[in-house]
């Protein structure tokens, strides 16, 4: 008894791969599914293909009348006509559009929120190559996290999902309850307050560690300040800003 174990993105793909290897039709085999395909966690982690086992059936030896010369001339090998070539299948597949990156990213955000026990809605705003996803719903503090750390992590993963399906790079921004704008105003106020402190005490002020995005806001706010300058020191994730008197 001949058996063959093959894999593919879907069960149908796995079966086709096996049939193509043996150059037989599906009625010549029995199929046993060993493993169904899995997208893994949020479609990113632990992705598994489908795996099937094909068993080749014994070919019945039925007597057949001898074909006439005319019929024999017109006939074609059954094995070759039964299965399309792999190249033909690839050409057909090439004309099919892949998943939409924005739809996949939106679905990922919703699935991630459900994994946290939340039901949310996502609205999308696109401007050139920048796509902003606004999340709305109850208890969004869980998605935002302390100082936006959970939101930043979700934004990073969403960027991976979107750019996995996009033909060109997309800049992804995640927001919830206008957190990004509120956080920017908070950091700008902090920058002004600590700059005044540095000038008043004639002493450098070292801020707590911040993300690159937050440090960029502080640098931009104090860039034109007449009495102080800023620079960063340390290594991620403990890199921080120093406000120094000129």
Structural account:
The structure is a single chain. This protein has 3 domains: about 5-55 and about 65-95, no CATH class; about 100-175, 2-Layer Sandwich (GMP Synthetase, Chain A, domain 3); about 180-245, R3H-like domain (Ribosomal Protein S8, Chain: A, domain 1), CATH 3.30.1370. It has helices spanning about 10-20, 70-75, 80, 85-95, 100-115, 140-145, 150-165, 180-200, 210-220, and strands spanning about 5-10, 30-35, 50-55, 120-125, 130-135, 170-175, 205, 230-235, 240-245. It is built from 9 helices and 9 strands. Residues about 70-95 have low confidence and may be disordered. It is elongated. By secondary structure, the protein is α+β, with helices and mostly antiparallel strands. Forms a complex with KhpA.
């Amino acid at each position: 008894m001949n058996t063959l174990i093959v894999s593919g993105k879907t069960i149908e793909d796995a079966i086709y791969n096996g049939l193509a290897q043996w150059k037989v039709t599906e009625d010549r085999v029995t199929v046993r599914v060993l493993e169904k395909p899995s997208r893994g966690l949020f479609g990113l982690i632990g992705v598994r293909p489908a795996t099937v086992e094909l068993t080749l059936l014994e070919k019945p030896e039925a007597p057949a009348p001898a074909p006439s010369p005319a019929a024999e001339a017109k006939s074609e090998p059954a094995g070759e006509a039964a299965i399309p070539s792999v190249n033909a299948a690839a050409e057909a597949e090439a004309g099919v559009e892949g998943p939409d990156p924005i739809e996949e990213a939106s679905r990922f955000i919703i699935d991630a929120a459900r994994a946290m026990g939340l039901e949310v809605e996502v609205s999308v705003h696109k401007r050139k190559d920048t796509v902003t996803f606004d999340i709305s719903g109850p208890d969004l503090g869980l998605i935002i996290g302390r100082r936006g750390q959970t939101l930043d992590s979700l934004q990073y993963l969403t960027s991976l999902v979107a750019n996995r399906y996009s033909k060109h790079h997309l800049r992804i921004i995640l927001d919830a309850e206008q957190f990004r704008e509120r956080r920017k105003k908070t950091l700008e106020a902090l920058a002004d307050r600590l700059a005044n402190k540095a000038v008043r005490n004639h002493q450098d002020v070292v801020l707590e560690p911040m993300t690159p995005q937050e440090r960029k806001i502080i640098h931009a706010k104090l860039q034109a300040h007449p009495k102080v300058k800023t620079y960063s020191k340390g290594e991620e994730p403990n890199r921080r800003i120093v406000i120094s008197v000129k």
